[in-house]
Design brief:
It is a single chain. The chain is α+β, with helices and mostly antiparallel strands. It contains 2 helices and 2 strands, in the order ββαα. It is 64% helix and 15% strand.
Length: 81
């Protein structure tokens, strides 16, 4: 696998022998690539944390909404007689 960022006409690259790397290794490679480009490590970590919290928040909202919709669907299908 090859990850590459071109920044101000300079190429920063990370290559792996295998394409089937685990997610945590991929995230580490992306983090290291951003550090190579010149982003501050703590800022990268903070942004990754904030993005993960945002994604999890949206997922929780979606799950709650789906659960509510399923409850309403079940409630509407109940025969009161």
């Amino acid at each position: 696998m090859k990850l590459e960022i071109t920044h101000y006409d300079i190429k920063y690259t990370i290559e792996t022998k295998n394409d089937d790397i685990p997610t945590e290794v991929m995230v580490e490679h992306i983090y290291n690539l951003l550090v190579q480009v010149g982003y501050q490590p703590l800022v990268i970590a903070q942004e990754l944390l904030e993005k993960s919290e945002e994604i999890l928040s949206v997922k929780r909202y979606r799950d709650e909404l789906l659960e509510e919709l399923n409850f309403e669907k079940r409630a509407n299908n109940v025969n009161p007689w």
